[in-house]
């Protein structure tokens, strides 16, 4: 109001000596601009950004230069700001403002470089607005490749945010890795893999490691198949196997993949060493099976035998291993060795699937034409179990044995009759067992008779269904209550089997009662 510009300036200068807040500096700048003192205002801006080195102060300075048409000066201000404030928490605002400045100057390539530089340097958690602006920029100025890069960048930001919030979310890591693999930048792919596998599950429990271990598997497969880096692949498998706590749990899959990788490199010694370590540290069925398969393909029979011995030493109840070992010896025409293995197997105190082992032994003897040995096996099996299926299998064997009889015997017809008689003998023995020793197993007895009847029918003229039909039971539909925790839950239908001897028993009791009554009457008359 007094027009004393010099006096006002002097007051402002004394005020600035106290280093006031931003508003004080901006008031001084406005004062100089009112009198068109551009150079003085520029000088104050320089002092302003030194006193308040904040992103907002630098942006105001650059906008001041741009407003005055000083494009080069404005760019210089932004560049200086980036040098000083690139690591600041508010750096995102600076880069966005710088890129938009270049965009207004029609310098789209400069703007793109600024966006990319910023995206590489600013932590993903603070770059949300930057990504959004970059995608919008590429849609407006970029080509197809640029737009795709921007979209990839946006997805990359999303995945970074997810893995930052929960580093143990392995599905997010898998998605992130797939994204990087689609782009094809080896260094980025490896970086993400390394970051992912660094997130080891916190507890040494297998359920927590199930998904995690596939990060290692995918990493190794990427290095071998895509990057074609054999040494890195070997290192990945080695580090993974060293990391797994094998004393608590292990993964057969990773051992086998590592061994198969070495085989593909024609390095059999390393493959054997890996599989040997697997058997020593964490023996599993899959590892034994694959190791034996590999040695068998290579024709190393003695190694296969040693492996089967270790397999059975580790798991003596394993019927699959016993059967396969015997099968190997049989394929080598080592009949006695195969038989000895079967004998050792059935002598084990505990077996996981004994029925399969006995069947394999019986089939072996049949294939060797050893019918008498087969009969002895069936008898030994029946000493252990009287299961319905064993009886039926035994009878079918006796009936089918005639198919193996050499022609030229005294009478083929007589031989057939003998086989049929042997089958009938088995059925008779079975029926007698179920009638006397297991009368409660009526359904099994009925099924056995049905099987016998069908077999007699299949014999044609030599068969005699009349032997079986009188023994067949009557089937009666009945109902019985269904018990539950709350009491009765309704009725259910079932089949009651009434065998011939059960219908005769009541009549005998009536005759006995009548005889006793008559005898008593005669004694009283006397």
Give a brief rundown of this model.
By secondary structure, this protein is mostly helical.
Overall description:
This protein is mainly alpha-helical and 526 residues long. Among the domains are: 87 residues, no CATH class; 49 residues. Helices cover 72% and strands 4% of the residues. The protein contains 26 helices and two strands. Strands 1-2 form a two-stranded antiparallel ribbon. Strand 1 and strand 2 form a beta hairpin. The N and C termini lie far apart (163 Å). The mean pLDDT is 86.
Which runs of at least 5 residues are low in confidence (pLDDT < 50)? none
What is the alpha-carbon Rg in Å? 45 Å
For the biggest sheet, the summary is: 2 strands, antiparallel
H/I helix tally: 26
How many DSSP E strands? 2
Oligomer status = single chain
Task: Find the structural class using helix and strand composition.
Answer: mainly alpha
Order of helices and strands: HHHHHHHHHHHHHHHHHHHHHHHHHEEH
Average pLDDT confidence is: 86
Helicity level? over 70%
Form type: elongated
Function: Involved in pre-mRNA splicing and cell cycle progression. Required for the spliceosome assembly and initiation of the DNA replication.
InterPro entries: HAT (IPR003107), HAT_Syf1_CNRKL1_C (IPR055430), Syf1-like (IPR045075), TPR-like_helical_dom_sf (IPR011990)
GO cellular component, one term: U2-type catalytic step 2 spliceosome
Pfam family, one: HAT_Syf1_CNRKL1_C
């Amino acid at each position: 109001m007094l027009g004393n510009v010099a006096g006002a300036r002097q007051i402002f200068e004394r005020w600035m000596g106290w280093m006031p807040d931003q508003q004080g500096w901006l008031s001084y700048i406005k004062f100089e601009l009112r009198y068109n003192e551009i150079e003085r205002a520029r000088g104050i801006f320089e002092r302003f950004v030194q006193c308040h080195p904040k992103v907002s102060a630098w942006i105001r300075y650059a906008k001041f230069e741009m407003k005055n048409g000083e494009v080069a000066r404005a760019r210089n201000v932004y560049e200086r700001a980036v040098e000083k404030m690139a690591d600041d928490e508010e750096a995102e605002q600076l880069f966005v403002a710088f890129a938009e400045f270049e965009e207004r100057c029609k310098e789209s390539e400069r703007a793109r470089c600024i966006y990319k530089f910023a995206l590489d340097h600013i932590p993903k958690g603070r770059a949300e607005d930057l990504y959004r602006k970059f995608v919008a920029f590429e849609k407006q100025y970029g080509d197809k490749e640029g737009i795709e890069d921007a979209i990839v960048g946006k997805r990359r930001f999303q995945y970074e945010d997810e893995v930052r919030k929960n580093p143990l979310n392995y599905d997010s890591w898998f998605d992130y890795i797939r994204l990087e693999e689609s782009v094809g930048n080896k260094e980025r792919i490896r970086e993400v893999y390394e970051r992912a596998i660094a997130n080891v599950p916190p507890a040494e429990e297998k359920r927590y490691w199930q998904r995690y271990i596939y990060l290692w598997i995918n990493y190794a497969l990427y290095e071998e198949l895509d990057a074609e880096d054999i040494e890195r692949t070997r290192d990945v498998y080695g580090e993974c196997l060293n990391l797994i706590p094998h004393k608590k749990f292990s993964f057969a899959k990773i051992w086998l993949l590592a061994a198969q990788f070495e085989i593909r490199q024609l390095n059999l010694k390393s493959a054997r060493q890996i599989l040997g370590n697997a058997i020593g540290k964490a023996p599993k069925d899959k590892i034994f099976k694959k190791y034996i398969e590999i040695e068998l393909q290579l024709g190393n029979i003695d190694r296969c035998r040693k492996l089967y011995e270790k397999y059975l030493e580790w798991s003596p109840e394993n019927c699959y291993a016993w059967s396969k070992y015997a099968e190997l010896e049989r394929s080598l025409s080592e009949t006695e060795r195969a038989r000895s293995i079967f004998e050792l197997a059935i002598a084990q105190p505990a077996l996981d699937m004994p029925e399969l082992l006995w069947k394999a032994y019986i089939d072996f003897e049949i294939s060797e034409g050893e019918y008498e040995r087969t009969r002895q096996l069936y008898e030994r099996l029946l000493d252990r179990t009287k299961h319905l299926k064993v009886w039926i299998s035994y009878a079918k064997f006796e009936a089918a044995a005639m198919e193996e009889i050499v022609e030229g015997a005294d009478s083929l017809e007589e031989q057939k009759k003998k086989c049929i008689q042997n089958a009938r003998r088995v059925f008779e023995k079975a029926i007698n067992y179920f009638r006397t020793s297991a009368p409660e197993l009526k359904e099994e007895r009925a099924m056995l008779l049905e099987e016998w009847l069908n077999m007699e029918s299949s014999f044609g003229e030599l068969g005699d269904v009349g032997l079986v039909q009188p023994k067949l039971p009557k089937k009666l539909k009945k109902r019985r209550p269904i018990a539950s925790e709350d009491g009765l839950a309704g009725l259910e239908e079932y089949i009651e089997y009434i065998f011939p001897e059960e219908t005769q028993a009541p009549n005998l009791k009536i005759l006995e009662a009548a005889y006793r009554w008559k005898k008593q009457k005669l004694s009283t008359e006397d």
